[in-house]
Specification:
The protein is mainly alpha-helical. It contains five helices and two strands, in the order H-H-E-E-H-H-H. Helices cover about 60% and strands about 5% of the residues. This is MerR family transcriptional regulator.
Length: about 120
């Protein structure tokens, strides 16, 4: 059976510009071969490829992967159904996952700003 851990339990996405496939694999609790397969199935998912055909994912790619993961593993969609939900953008689950990912990230960034301000005071 598919892994059923929740996206809310996944680690906060660091404030980096690019992520390797190994880093994304850990951030999204999905194996690298699954990420490569999803690239073929979801046209929205297209990481930057550099020398040696290495993949580099951006922040929005990681969020997209977490959305796909939620649709497949938590909501029980098939690949085709998840692709349709992603294309139409009508899924309340997709919007909920977006908020679940953005809010903790914003909180972490604001806490970092508070630390900087506290250090200057």
């Amino acid at each position: 059976m598919l892994e059923a851990s929740h996206n809310s339990e996944l680690p906060v996405i660091p404030g980096k510009r690019y992520f390797t496939i190994g880093e994304v694999s850990e951030l999204c609790a999905v194996k690298p071969h699954v990420l490569r397969y999803w690239e073929q199935e979801f046209p929205q998912l297209s990481p930057v490829k550099r020398r040696g055909n290495r993949r580099y994912y951006q922040h929005q790619d990681v969020i997209l992967i977490r959305q796909i993961r939620a649709l497949l593993y938590e909501e029980g969609y098939t690949i085709g159904g998840a692709r349709l939900q992603m294309e139409t953008g009508n899924s309340e689950k997709v919007q909920t996952v977006q908020l679940q990912q953005v809010i903790p990230q914003m909180i972490a960034e604001l806490e970092g700003v508070l630390e900087l301000l506290g250090a200057d005071a």
